[in-house]
Amino acid sequence: MKKTIVLLLLCSISSSLLAQLKAPDQFLGYTLGTYFSRHHQVTDYFRHLEANGSGMIKLQTYGKTNENRELMVAFISSQENISRLDLIRNNHENGREESVAIVWLSYNVHGNESAGTEAAMMTAHELITTRKDWLKNTVVIIDPCINPDGRDRYVNWYNQQMNTPYNAHVETAEHDEPWPSGRPNHYLFDLNRDWAWLTQVESQQRIALYNRWLPHVHVDFHEQGMNEPYYFAPAAEPYHEVITKWQREFQNGVGRNNAKYFDQNGWFYFTREIFDLLYPSYGDTYPTYNGAIGMTYEQGGSGRGGLGVITAEGDTLTLRDRIQHHHISGISTVEFSVEQKDKLIREFNFFNSNKSYKYKTYAVSGNEEKLSVLMDLLDRHEILYSFGDGNTLKGYDYASGKQSSVKLSENHLLIQTDQKKGTLVNVLFEPKTYLSDSLTYDITAWSLPYAYGLDCIASENKITGKAAKAAVDPAFPESEVYAYLLRWDSMEDAKALSELIQNGIKVRYSESAFSFGDKKYAPGTLIIVCGENETKSLESLLNELVRKYRISIETTKTGMVDTGKDFGSSAVKLIKNKRIALLTGDQTSSLNVGEIWHFMEKELKYPISMLHANSVTTESLQSYDVLIVPEGWYRDLSGTIGSWVSSGGTVIAIGDALSMFNEQNGFSLSPKSDNKEEEKEEDRHEHAHIPYDKLERESVKEIITGAIFKCKVENTNPLAFGYGENYFTLKLSGNGYSWMKNGGNVVYLEKDATPIAGFAGSKAIPRQSESLIIGHEHKGSGTLIYLVDNPLFRGFWENGKLFFANALFFN
């Protein structure tokens, strides 16, 4: 009797709470789609749902953005499931039997793809009101806005620009979003390319939570061009070969369920085109490589859509339409997941430890500081590793491209594919990714040993190492000291240098190799002479840097070397505290500006000034020592910049920006041509008769989509200090520049160079033969440094970053 009374009381309370529950329109005071909601309004609404949702919704704040906005997820399920949420998660995380399917819906990773967040509120409300039956065996996790900083940038701009009523004509101001747009986060990164690399604070905090749940299904809601219909799964080829038959089948099933509702409403959609499942750092592929059914949904609209816009076909696409489409596809996905719950749980392959990949063990070795940075990434992904204990390992050598063997020491990092995260390990470490189709949406090579500048052997045998290596006291020995020495061979050393300079410490570097007895020091070694740094805090500062950056600092009692140049030589140069500027604004690539900005502020932690390219003059540059010219589409600034360089400035130009500094403008760069005028008659005839349906595929012959090339390095040049004789570059373009005629070829490709991994078009490859990767030239009393390939690309190509630091400090 008492139980019956309690149940009746609980039901009465639940009914009372639901009666107070408001739909988004009621709570916000406007109809969804007639106004863009700011982030704080969205989080307020989800708190209203939690307070009045009869125990069917629980919120969790999982972090903050760079601009201090809240990152939040909502867990939506039955009262019973919410009350035992931790148990459900724990059972699922540890592979114990659990009858609850987990579906994660992520919205607004791109800030100006703004219909998603509005749809998230509508979907959450419907789930806890009219779809309660689905929640008995399902937990739905909703992240209403992955990128609040970008979203509010867009929303604030649009709400200021919009007409009342809105103007649907696309040429009007409210459809012309200014640079850098709301798409990226605070540091102008594309968060949908950062799931695997985790360079951004939003990604780092989200993955920590994602790894706690590892959902069965994950949908990433996007928007595409305003003239496109809706896109949903199944995805296009190429699929990565690790994707299972079951994952493919479920995508097809979801797609058919979505199609059913879109057909009923007469809405246009497409599948199996454009959006493939290869690059590992997307919101669909990363979950897929962690066992889930990962999918991207794309609604037409994006930043140009506004509240309503007239499309190329003359129809008016409204924000209300866009919201409704995302809402229906989300509800449909949850419905299908509920219907397929048992099979979904049974087939979920994340906990299958018998992953039969070609390579069972990756043995990674090299610079200890670089290894430590790699281990940080592995830890964030909860990828397990061990250390060598004397076994011999045979396999594919990444450096030579041939079979090799090595005796494993404790300085070898061993990563096995026979672990929970084995699929992700295989994708991130495999030397070459198989392409089932050359038409891809993103880069086609990313192998972490190349990206981190480490040696690696991939073995087809499972090799077990020891759990930990011997601890080493990082502090340098205390003794009578003339100078402290810091070997220059990793970004951790560059971070330490930045901190030393900003603490007023005078730091020098040697342009030549030197030695004391049997201790040899390479060019670029940093020298901190005690006599010119008479501060009591020097030793404590150095000890702090040793602990902070896991670097090694040595000492010497004398400035007279046994071989090389003494410390008073002109070959030992003082590193100046440089004043650095970065061009920004609508002539520049926001992505590359963001990569540099983030590198300077969050990694190197060195001050930088942002100058609008539209207003830069020779006079305005006089306050600076270094000007960084990012990738972009410039009106010719070569005269302005060239005049400043001649008076002593240093330019670092990247990628497309190099086109300004050609021979016609008085510089030394010479783009490599296609020699089309020399094309054979039979080739011209063939190209003139390419079938229409083959044009797209023919065009890929001209491009390189993120392929890795092995380069030669002239490492006596200060721009290459810290590198060996070879470097692996990630090429993102089919363009090429000839070797520089008057020297200055620091990193370059040799004759007939071809990619070692990734796709390169047959017509783009010849342009890479004997082409420049990094070069420099002197003009007047200044210097221009050319980075043909962007070494800071998406912040994940770790081994390129030291080149950038060299360009800043050693010129």
Q: What this model shows, in words?
A:
It is built from 23 helices and 35 strands. The protein is globular. By secondary structure, the protein is an alpha/beta fold. The model is unreliable at about 5-15 and about 675-680 (pLDDT under 50). About 50% of the residues are buried. A hairpin with a 2-residue loop joins β21 and β22 (about 520). It has four domains: about 35-345, Zn peptidases (Aminopeptidase); about 360-430 and about 445-460, no CATH class; about 485-575, no CATH class; about 580-675 and about 690-810, 3-Layer(aba) Sandwich (Rossmann fold). α6 (about 115-130) packs across α12 (about 320-340). Strands 26, 27, 28, 29, 30, 31, 32, 33, 34 and 35 form a ten-stranded mixed sheet that branches. Strands 1-2-4-3-5-10 form a six-stranded mixed sheet.
Calculate Rg over CA atoms: 29 Å
> What integer is the average pLDDT?
93
| Number of individual domains | 4
Question: What's the shape?
Answer: globular
Give the amount of beta strand, in percent. 15-25%
Helix coverage percent:
25-40%
Number of helices: 23
CATH architecture of the largest domain: 3-Layer(aba) Sandwich
CATH topology of the largest domain: Aminopeptidase
Distance between the termini: 85 Å
Given the helix and strand composition, which structural class is it? alpha/beta
| CATH class call of the largest domain | Alpha Beta
Please name the fourth-level CATH homologous superfamily of the largest domain.
Zn peptidases
Which consecutive residue ranges, at least 5 long each, have pLDDT under 50?
3-13, 675-679
Oligomeric state of the chains in view: single chain
- Total strand segments: 35
Largest sheet: 10 strands, mixed
